[in-house]
Design a protein that fits this description.
three-stranded mixed sheet; about 45% helix; alpha/beta; Rossmann fold; globular; 13 helices
Length: about 350
């Protein structure tokens, strides 16, 4: 028995692989292109583990995927592979279309061909689990009810539009060809191995380096925050017991404005790694010009997965964010290694000239 995990060297994917192998001896075939956000160092603890087979490659490479499926026949494919940063999608949307739309299409087509050739029980038990985002639903007003699985798709960035397209392809492959699919739409993840272009790790890394903490606009954009290991446990549960063709929203029940998140990170760093001058890291907060089309609020209603599959998050935001800050403080070498020249060029491109 084996599973194929795509994007398994990225933030969520690597956490999933590590959690999976901490609980199961089932072989993991890990396919990752190792772009800027894919980091093989996340998987260093598995270097000599025969249960983990890493393959560097693209989900859009149909021949490679077909060969992997033939060599290591999986009972499931879990698709994490995606370009996932809104700001990067604004600067360069084509990469998002290629990976998230074309790549997902080719992966689905390879999966359909493989699944069609399976026999009896193996065919019945096979699953294609597609990991997506709450951003496909668009933006909510302050008093609007949270996103449910039947909320209309209204993506507002090239990133979310590309993910919406991939979701539609997954749905179509189920309804047209019968491919046994599952789709999950998650809220904002945070935790270990998060690439420091996203809000929480960027604030931690910049604070410790004595750099400005850039906050878009007024900082009142609201997100629902989900600890990454809770997300991993939810995906395992959906894979085990989810109903074929269904969509499951995964959230942390933690709606908070971005500025509150930054204040919380600063308070934890004040406690755990105080500045040498005795001042608060909050003094480093700098408000910068908002990004184009910035969605005001996301909120996930995760009651369906709790009601039907019995899943709910184990971490509160308070416990999860403390674990996250401690992880970054204890893994400074990892942070240093991912801050390559390419990363520094990206920060300069995205934030230079944004001062509000």
């Amino acid at each position: 028995m084996s599973i194929l995990v795509t994007g398994g060297a990225g933030f969520i994917g690597s956490n999933f692989v590590l959690d999976w192998l901490a609980q199961s001896d089932e072989l993991v075939i890990n396919l990752d292109k190792l772009t800027y956000a894919g980091n093989i160092e996340n998987l260093q603890s598995l270097n000599s583990d025969h249960r983990h087979v890493f393959v560097q490659g693209d989900i859009g490479d149909s021949a490679l995927v077909a060969n992997l499926l033939a060599q290591h026949p999986p009972r499931a494919i879990i698709n994490f592979a995606a370009e996932s940063h809104v700001d990067r999608s604004i600067h360069g949307p084509e990469d998002f279309v290629q990976t998230n739309v074309v790549g997902t299409f080719r992966l689905l087509d390879a999966a359909r061909a493989y699944w069609s050739g399976l026999q009896s029980d193996a065919k019945q038990n096979f699953r294609f689990l597609h990991v997506s985002t709450d951003e496909v639903y668009g933006s909510l007003g302050k008093e609007d009810p949270a996103f449910t699985e039947t909320h209309r798709y209204e993506p507002n960035s090239p990133y979310s539009a590309s993910k919406a397209a991939s979701d539609h392809l997954v749905r179509a492959y189920h309804h047209t060809y019968g491919l046994p699919v599952l789709t999950t739409n998650c809220s904002n993840n945070y935790g270990p191995y998060h690439f420091p272009e996203k809000l929480i790790p960027l604030m931690i890394v910049n604070a410790l380096a004595g750099k400005p903490l850039p906050v878009y606009g007024d900082g009142q954009q609201i997100r629902d925050w989900l600890y990454v290991k809770d997300h991993c446990s939810a995906i395992r549960r959906v894979l085990d017991a989810g109903h074929v063709g269904e969509v499951y929203n995964i959230g942390g029940w933690n709606e908070k404005p971005n500025l509150d998140i930054v204040h919380t990170v600063c308070a934890l760093l004040d406690e755990l790694s105080p500045r040498v001058d005795g001042k608060s890291y909050r003094e480093q907060i700098t408000f910068v010009a908002d990004r184009p089309g910035h969605d005001r609020r996301y909120a996930i209603d995760a009651s369906k997965i709790q009601r039907e599959l019995g899943w709910k998050p184990a971490e509160t935001f308070e416990t999860g964010i403390r674990k996250t800050v401690l992880w970054y403080l204890e893994n400074q070498n990892w942070v240093t290694n991912v801050q390559s020249g390419t990363y520094r060029e990206w920060l300069e491109k995205n934030y230079t000239g944004r001062a509000a």
